[in-house]
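Here is an idea for our session: we take a single protein and study its fold together. Start from the sequence, derive the C-alpha cells from it, and show both lines together. Once you have written the record down, we can walk along the chain together:
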Amino acid sequence: MPGIGPLATIAMLLPITFSLSAVTALIMLAGIYYGAQYGGSTTSILVNLPGESSSVITCLDGYAMARQGRAGPALSIAAMGSFFSGCVATVVIALFAATLAEVAFKFGPAEYFFAHGSWIGGCGLCSHMALAQAIAMVIVGLLLAGWHRCQFRGSPTHFWDFSTLRWS
C-alpha cells in the first residue's frame, strides 16, 4: 500500500488473523510485509515517488534507468533482489532464532545498562543541537523511561516515588 508502509498495513490487517491458525496467520503477515516492501519500489522506479520510506534509494538508480528506457530491467532487478534478500533473511532467522533467543534471555542489569548507556552516548553524538539541549533531551527521556509497567510481572516499575505517576 503506497504511502502507508508495511508495518501500518500489518497493524491494520492484524485483526483478520485472529480467526486463522498460527501458521496461516504468520504466512499471511509475511506475505503482506514482503509485498508491501517490494511494492514501494514500483512507484520509485516508474514515477520517482517512493511508496515507502525504505524505497527512497531506489528512486536514485531505478528512475534513472526508467528515463533511459530501461524500466523493465529496473523492475526485474528490484523483484529479484527483493526475492533473494527475503529468502536469505528467512533462512538466517530460521537458523539463528533459537540462539538469539538464548542470548536475549541471558541479558541482565549490566547488559541493559550498557544498552542504555550506548543510547545516551548515541544521542550525544548524533545531536546537531547545542550540548545543553542534547542533555535536556536525554534527561527527559530517562524521566519518561523510569515510569512504566514491568513487561514480565505487570507491576508498576518506576524510579521516582511520585504518587501522581502511579498506575491505578
Remarks:
- The CA atoms of residues 36 and 144 lie 33 Å apart.
- Residues 71-105 form the longest helix (35 residues).
- The radius of gyration is 22 Å.
